[in-house]
Design a protein that fits this description.
Blueprint: H1 2-14, E1 24-36, E2 44-49, E3 58-61, E4 65-72, E5 82-84, E6 110-116, E7 122-127, E8 139-145, E9 156-165, H2 170-177, E10 192-195, E11 202-204, E12 210-217, E13 224-228, E14 233-238, E15 241-248, E16 250-253, E17 258-264, E18 273-280, E19 295-301, E20 343-353, E21 359-363, H3 375-381, E22 399-402, E23 407-414, E24 420-424, E25 429-434, E26 457-459, E27 461-464, E28 469-475, E29 480-486, H4 489-493, E30 497-502, H5 504-510, H6 515-524, H7 558-574, H8 591-604
Parallel strand pairs: 1-4, 3-8, 9-12, 11-19, 20-23, 22-30
Antiparallel strand pairs: 1-2, 4-6, 5-7, 7-8, 9-10, 12-17, 13-16, 13-18, 14-15, 14-17, 18-19, 20-21, 23-28, 24-27, 24-29, 25-26, 25-28, 29-30
This protein binds 2-acetamido-2-deoxy-beta-D-glucopyranose (7 copies) and copper (II) ion (CU).
Length: 616
């Protein structure tokens, strides 16, 4: 029974749907830098297409083919494009993450993203997968219209993106973030939250109308709450998966998550307007600067001549107001819990300082460091008898090899008190366990846990609670190299990622590198043959592979490092010599930046408590 039902799931996930009128959409986009001021507060250089920003919403229909020619028109940055949530079944090289499935696209180069969307519909998005470049705006919405009737009715469809927004460029922020002078790994705090790439947005609505609102978080870091004055939302889609309608007063979206909701307007025009609020999840911020507005007011406008109320107070922590818990949502079609796992991957999350003083994010003591050859290219070039040997993919890509069609279970034990939204490329997974937040790190216990849902939620991005755990399951039926990583872009840059090498045998038999793939690698000086170290002769020899910095000496804990750092910086601060801190290497911080960092660190660590200084 179970297996029969599971067969349906597989069909739905990967079956080729015959559509009479499949279309090929061809796009030519040049990635360019331009000025924009989406929050109305400060203009900055953003990254758009063809000197335009915001980026277009790409709209296609299930069964269609996309040919997107992406030309890198930037002068001093590589680029790439990932279509978030798409399975890319049979088209692994179209997935986008640099060093995983392709080489970075150098300035002047063009890479063709050529894929057919066989079996998916719903609300998606696309974004650069080069460093944390998408924080500067290289992201947009992707809608895949269903070729069949949707399981709910509505009158009009409307797209909405939400995001966080920084005034500084991602490159400047990254220099300060991944830096020994930021030893606690405090993430840069955004300056604003955007609503549809703007602020103070008025959404004109008609009375007695049901809107299907597709909401995509294109954030890089902070999750957001959404709630509307005197209106409810009925969730019908989650990350491209239709779910049984569930009505809620508020929503919570982490970076990269999507919800499709129905909003029914008042039957009779009330001739007034209602606040559509967004609120940053302040628990994710190390400090909340006084000038940061945690909420943003937008409006559902029934009458353009009526007032726009200033704000709507709403407490989403009160029972009844809480955002819908995604764990309770049931996909339409009720795909049963996958059978017990064949292969289990247990990942312990840790954030700590390595010997260079920088704060890293690690899974099982490994922080992701890119290989010298894209991992997909290693699979396709290695001798056939070596492709199941994970060593060839490099020790710091943190690779796991999955067998064809096995049931894979990923357990994430979060030993960090912060929240992390994890995303798996190439799949939707069943969320079969999701713990609350805990005071102290609490691991998943296989022999003692809450019962698994009969019909678990399926989605592609899910958040693990601070000090908590979650358990995900999927079937390894999509040959490819797939990244699994935190979608907080800062944490991805800190190395919070693993690489899954799924059914490498079928992958080799069915997929190959195009000439275009190779040209792009050549242009950026990367190989497309060889193991992770670039060795094309002896795949077992990983000499000179990219590796992570070494661990701090034993007994030299992060806390100790911090205490030492604090002593030094406090002393230097007192001597007014902070200006010359940047000395020999990377970190040349201005006085303002230094004071800002120092302030963050002091507040974050309650550093006025002197016991910390003596703690090691
Ligand atoms: C973008 O610019 C390229 C040339 O760089 C041009 O070929 C293409 O038609 C433009 N695309 C759009 C949508 O304007
Ligand atoms: C939104 O309103 C604020 C406060 O009035 C203003 O400073 C800002 O420029 C506005 N932004 C936009 C994009 O309209
Ligand atoms: C582009 O990628 C290559 C290969 O990783 C790297 O060597 C180069 O520094 C990158 N270019 C820029 C501008 O970051
Ligand atoms: C796109 O990919 C398909 C299938 O791999 C291939 O047949 C086709 O030639 C490609 N199109 C272009 C323009 O390269
Ligand atoms: C958001 O922007 C898109 C694209 O411009 C537009 O079609 C849509 O109506 C806007 N959504 C809202 C809620 O204003
Ligand atoms: C609202 O729409 C429903 C269904 O279309 C219709 O039956 C009803 O009369 C409408 N109400 C008003 C006040 O127009
Ligand atoms: C990580 O390293 C620590 C210290 O070396 C060790 O105690 C621990 O078992 C390691 N954890 C894993 C998951 O390998
Ligand atoms: Cu994270």
């Amino acid at each position: 029974m179970r297996l029969a039902n599971f067969g349906t799931l597989v069909m739905v996930m990967y079956g080729v749907v015959a559509t009479a009128a499949a279309t090929t959409h061809t796009f030519y986009y040049e990635v360019t830098a331009l000025k924009a001021n989406p929050d109305g507060v400060k203009e900055k250089t953003v990254i758009g297409f063809n000197n335009t920003w915001p980026l277009p919403t790409i709209e296609i229909t299930k069964g269609d083919t996309v040919l997107l020619y992406l030309t890198n028109g930037l002068k001093d940055s590589n680029t790439s494009l990932h279509f978030h949530g798409l399975f890319q079944n049979g088209a692994n090289a179209m997935d986008g993450p640099e060093f995983v499935t392709q080489c970075p696209i150098a300035p002047g180069q063009t890479y063709l993203y050529n894929f057919t969307v066989d079996s998916q519909s719903g609300t998606y998005w696309y974004h650069s997968h080069t460093g944390n470049q998408y924080l500067d705006g290289l992201r947009g919405a992707l809608i895949i219209h269903d070729s069949e009737p949707m399981p709910f009715e509505y009158d009009e469809e409307v797209m909405l993106t939400i995001s966080d927004w920084y005034h500084d460029s991602h490159k400047d922020l990254m220099k300060q973030f991944l830096n020994k002078y930021n030893p606690t790994g405090a993430e840069p705090v955004p300056q604003n939250a955007l609503f549809n790439d703007s602020r103070n947005v008025t959404w004109e609505v008609k009375p007695n109308t049901t809107y299907f609102l597709r909401i995509a978080s294109v954030s890089g870091f902070v999750s957001q709450y959404l709630y509307i004055e005197d209106h409810e939302m009925t969730v019908v889609e989650v990350d491209g998966v239709y779910v049984e309608p569930t009505t809620t007063k508020s929503l919570y979206l982490t970076a990269a998550q999507r919800y499709g909701v129905l909003i029914k307007t008042k039957e009779v025009n009330p001739n007034k307007n209602f606040c559509f609020m967004q609120a940053l999840d302040e628990s994710m911020l190390d400090i909340v600067p006084a000038e940061l507005e945690l909420t943003g007011t937008n409006w559902m406008v029934y009458n353009k001549d009526a007032d726009l109320p200033e704000s709507f107070d709403f407490d989403y922590t009160v029972e009844g107001n809480e955002p819908v818990d995604d764990f309770t949502l049931v996909p339409i079609g009720k795909y049963p819990l996958l059978p017990d796992y064949d292969y289990q991957i247990v990942l312990d999350v840790e954030m700590l300082n390595l010997a260079n003083g920088v704060n890293y994010a690690l899974f099982n003591n490994i922080t992701y460091v890119p290989p010298k050859v894209p991992t997909l290219a290693t699979v396709l070039s290695a001798p056939k008898d070596q492709i199941f040997n994970k060593e060839i993919y490099g020790s710091n890509t943190h690779s796991f090899v999955l067998q064809k069609d096995e049931i894979v279970e990923i357990v994430v034990n979060n030993h960090d008190d912060g929240k992390h939204p994890f995303h798996l490329h190439g799949h939707i997974f069943q969320v079969i366990q999701k713990s609350p937040e805990f005071e102290d790190p609490t691991d998943y216990d296989e022999n003692d846990h809450e019962s698994f849902p009969d019909y678990p939620l399926l989605r592609d991005t899910v958040q693990v609670a601070g000090n908590g755990y979650m358990v995900l399951r999927f079937k390894a039926n999509n040959p490819g190299v797939w990244f699994f990583h935190c979608h907080v872009d800062w944490h991805l840059e800190q190395g919070l990622a693993i690489t899954l090498i799924e059914d490498p045998e079928t992958l080799r038999e069915t997929q190959y590198l195009s000439d275009n793939f190779k040209e792009v690698c050549d242009a950026v000086g990367m190989g497309y043959q060889g193991n992770a170290a670039g060795n094309t002769k002896d795949y077992g020899n990983l000499d000179n592979e990219n590796v992570q910095p070494s661990f701090l000496p034993p007994g030299f804990t992060a806390k100790g490092y911090f205490a030492m750092f604090l002593c030094v910086i406090t002393a230097l601060y007192g001597l007014y010599t902070i200006f010359s801190f940047g000395n020999e290497d990377d970190a040349t911080l201005s006085e303002d930046e230094m004071i800002e960092n120092l302030k963050n660190i002091l507040i974050q660590n309650n550093a006025f408590d002197e016991s910390l200084l003596g703690s090691e």
